[in-house]
Automatic annotation (TrEMBL):
CDD domains xref list: MPP_239FB
PANTHER family given in the database record: METALLOPHOSPHOESTERASE, SER_THR PROTEIN PHOSPHATASE FAMILY PROTEIN (AFU_ORTHOLOGUE AFUA_1G06000)
Signal peptide coordinates: none
Gene3D superfamilies documented for this protein: 3.60.21.10
InterPro entries: Calcineurin-like_PHP, Metallo-depent_PP-like, UPF0046_metallophosphoest
Name this protein carries in UniProt: Metallo-dependent phosphatase
Cross-referenced SUPFAM superfamilies: Metallo-dependent phosphatases
Residue stretches making up the Calcineurin-like phosphoesterase domain: 15-211
GO molecular function list: hydrolase activity
Taxonomic source organism: Zopfia rhizophila CBS 207.26
Amino acid sequence: MTSEYFNTPQMRKTRVVCISDTHNQTPKLPKGDVLVHAGDLSNQGSYTELKKTVDWLEKANFEAKIVIAGNHDITLDTDFYKQHGSSWRWPKPQDPEQCQKLFLESPSITYLQNEAVSIYLSSPTGPQTCFKVFGSPCTPKLWNWAFQYDATEASQLWNAIPLDTDIVVTHTPPKNHCDVSGRKEMSGCEVLRKALYRVRPMLSIFGHIHEARGVERVRWNMNSPGDGCLEDSVEVWKDPGVGNNKQSLVDLTAKGGRPLDNSSALTRHNKSFSLVSPSPMRDSGGEFTNLWPDGFNSTSRPEGSPAFDNEARGKAMLGGTIEDRQAPSMSDIGLVSKSDVEVDGRRRGQLETCMINAAFMAGSWGGGHKRFNKPIVVDVDLPVWNELAA
């Protein structure tokens, strides 16, 4: 049976739980559909540290778990570890390949390293929505840490974010957005900020700067950004979970009264899928003031899951997720060199992006007494990919 999306597929609330910079902590997580961890899983990336974190992630009850590394996860950056690993004290010699296998061979973790993947939530008890996510562990060069880039490499790195990305997960913040460090310096990446303006995803999730944890709702300047004013307005979130037992909730849904003004997911998911068989159907938020892997083999496909042109791309994950990894689209990357008018034509409905610094560690790393933030829970409307579940 073949089913095609209408131009405006049904939208359904999807709960995304965001966390970053856990540094070996394994906190209890709020319930949700998707978990995003934006890096610094450990203090320095030993196998013991990473195994503890992977065990915690795999036990977490989410359909999809999107994970990137951070600058502290040293063994996950093979080249860096080979050159500089001896600068750290280790309980015993480390094997980067074995450390990386913890994530790459996990049956429930989608581990991203400068790459994009489309996620289809296929559990009959879940929202059965879909989105495209890009993830990168990289941060601007500062001292001697893993996954760093210098100024000459930034454009090539961030221009590789596909234009049809719904969620961008990076360890570094973009400049000027939830990036003020304890030294009162804006520590984010300006080139990433410009890339987010180009792509205009629904969500930008990051960490790295612990003291800057928070959320901003950014409305983009649709006029020519020649004067450098990429943002038309920025609203700062008031956390409803401060000093109480409430969740740190951000409600971007239509039901919440003020949906995110971004149609990114709508335009991208106007495509056809073959369905094996039909699948059964199944709070108020806070206020606002190029490493491309080979395809993954899938030995079976759950009922009601999408059939891809290249079946080797589809990977069934534990928890009810179908993961579709694709080679980079040269047309996507090439669009950055086309005229602003042509690019704006594809982004006309993408007016807002929610920026989320989800740092769990509240103070600077190594700064003495440990203080922690709550994970940030984001409710957002995403398209239902399975028409039979709509």
